[in-house]
Protein: Lipoprotein
Organism: Acinetobacter indicus
Amino acid sequence: MSRKLLLVSCATVFLAVGCVAFPEDGHYNGRYDHRYDRDYDRNYDYRRMTERQRWEYEQRQKRLQQQRQREAQWDRQKRELERKRAEQSRQQLQRERERRAELNRKRQQVERKQQEQRKKRVEEQRKRMEEYRKRQRDRRD
């Protein structure tokens, strides 16, 4: 058992020393190799920058969408106001037409009555004249 333990320990030591002594680039000078973490800050900054740009793009898109919605809302309100104004104008014109038609009808009715009264007066005057002439004739005879 101790032999196996000793053999495993030696193998571990040789493998560990071999990995340290023989890195991927083929040499080892004992110093810290910065190539493994040289992109860490750059990747962090790049990631941060791209996230910031994405966030700014999303904010810009949200603002544009909100602006479009506001403009659409204003356009709807404007069309609604114009429709109401047109409806009020149409109703006012209709009332004015009805009022004028009523006035014309009343005026024609008054004129008709006046004409009938004139006819009656003329007829009465004609009858009176006939009666007067008849009396005159009767007196002469």
Helices lie at 2-21, 38-140. Residues 2-140 form one domain.
